[in-house]
């Protein structure tokens, strides 16, 4: 049991009576010293609760580097050019992206500056260690939040995330008769249990678009993420010219809200197994499918225009993963090469991660007409 988190939640409950699921999730994941992402023991990668794409194979970061390079070219090769990664986990994507650029393109390397926005002190330390081991420390600046990034409104570059939005706190709601209810967290002795009540804020339901709401049947459950609105708006406000690249679980509305029969797409993960979200707070991961339509709509209010929505398969396919796999095929009888090929294809194939992860590209301050046809991630087609 994660006693610090459990005690913190009981204290919050003693004061408030009940917590929104978003409040529960915020403490369970982000309690400053003991939350799932902020405790001393690590959870991502080897022996943890989940692998993220950067941990599967460095080709992931290499392909993102190529896509980011294309963004840079599309913007007219500006210098300095900021790549700002929010929620960098253990820093593997930063390492692989930066190494790829350093090896491949000196002009781009000279223009590039890298920023990491990371809420957790433990994780920031892990990121530093990983980058230092590759002599990349000098290239990176750290910020605790988007508000701290200097030069807001003037920045030229790319803001990118992998599995950030699915880790932001969500409210759990349901359709009930003509109205809506919220599913809170309450205490039953030591246990945490669900408790139904009126909406904590009536505006929450407006985070689901009207057409989708009209399709909700009585008893339908869904999750909404006001934090995602704040984050995408803050990202848009940072940029003068540039792109926002979002890679995550989820889908567009209405599909994202109907993916799980009468459930809301909120999941717990404990050692790579699906679990009940209210169990083991602080010891298990909590995630929720991302409503990409909400990111598109909210982005528009700060000048971000959707350029395209696609899959991880197309992002990686358009940025060279198959050429790399082809090189490995020439070493077919080498067992190490086989294992490596398998990991690369896990990222790419539709029946693996290739389709599960979706990719949204938004742009600001650049002519978007005709842009989608030129971008690698949006042009790729898997040949039959
Ligand atoms: C699921 S992990 C993904 C990590 C990494 N991107 C990867 O793919 O391995 C979510 C990351 O987002 C960070 N995070 C969550 N909320 C954040 C916030 N509001 N500001 C900065 N980082 C945040 C977490 O600390 C963690 O590093």
Automatic annotation (TrEMBL):
The keyword Methyltransferase applies. GO terms for molecular function: protein-arginine omega-N symmetric methyltransferase activity. The keyword Metal-binding does not apply. This is SAM-dependent methyltransferase. One of its GO terms (biological process) is methylation. It comes from the Bacteria. InterPro entries: NDUFAF7, NDUFAF7_sf, SAM-dependent_MTases_sf. Keywords: Methyltransferase, Transferase. Gene3D superfamilies: 3.40.50.12710.
């Amino acid at each position: 049991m994660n006693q610090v988190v459990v005690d913190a939640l009981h204290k919050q409950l003693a004061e408030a009576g009940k917590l929104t699921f978003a409040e529960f999730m915020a403490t369970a994941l982000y309690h400053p010293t003991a939350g799932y992402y902020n405790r001393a023991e690590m959870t991502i990668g080897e022996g943890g609760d989940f692998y993220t794409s950067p941990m599967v194979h460095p080709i992931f970061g290499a392909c993102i580097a190529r896509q980011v390079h294309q963004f840079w070219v599309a913007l007219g090769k500006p210098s300095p050019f900021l790549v700002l990664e929010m929620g960098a986990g253990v820093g593997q994507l930063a390492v692989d992206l930066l190494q790829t650029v350093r090896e491949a393109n000196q002009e781009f390397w000279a223009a590039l500056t890298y920023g990491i926005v990371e809420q957790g002190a433990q994780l920031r330390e892990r990121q530093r260690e990983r980058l230092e081991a590759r002599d990349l420390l000098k290239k990176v600046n750290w910020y605790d939040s988007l508000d701290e990034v200097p030069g807001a409104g003037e920045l030229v570059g790319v803001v990118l995330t992998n599995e950030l939005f699915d880790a932001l706190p969500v409210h759990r709601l349901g359709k009930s008769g003509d109205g809506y209810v919220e599913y809170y967290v309450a205490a039953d002795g030591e246990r945490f249990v669900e408790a139904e009540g009126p909406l904590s804020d009536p505006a929450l339901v407006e985070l689901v678009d009207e057409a989708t709401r009209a399709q909700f049947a009585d008893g339908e459950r869904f999750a909404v993420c006001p934090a995602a609105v704040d984050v995408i708006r803050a990202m848009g406000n940072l940029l003068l010219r540039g792109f926002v690249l979002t890679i995550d679980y989820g889908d567009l509305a209405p599909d994202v809200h109907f993916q799980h029969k009468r459930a809301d797409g909120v999941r717990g993960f404990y050692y790579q197994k699906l679990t009940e979200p209210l169990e083991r707070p602080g010891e298990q991961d909590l995630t929720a499918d991302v409503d990409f339509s909400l990111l598109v709509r909210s982005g528009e209010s700060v000048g971000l225009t959707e350029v395209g929505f696609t899959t991880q398969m197309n992002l990686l396919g358009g940025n060279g993963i198959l050429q790399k796999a082809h090189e490995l095929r020439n070493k077919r009888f080498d067992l190490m090469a086989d294992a490596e090929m398998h990991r690369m294809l896990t990222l790419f194939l539709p029946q693996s991660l290739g389709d599960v992860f979706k990719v949204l590209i938004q742009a600001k301050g650049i002519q978007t007409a005709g842009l989608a046809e030129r971008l690698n991630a949006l042009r790729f087609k898997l040949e039959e």
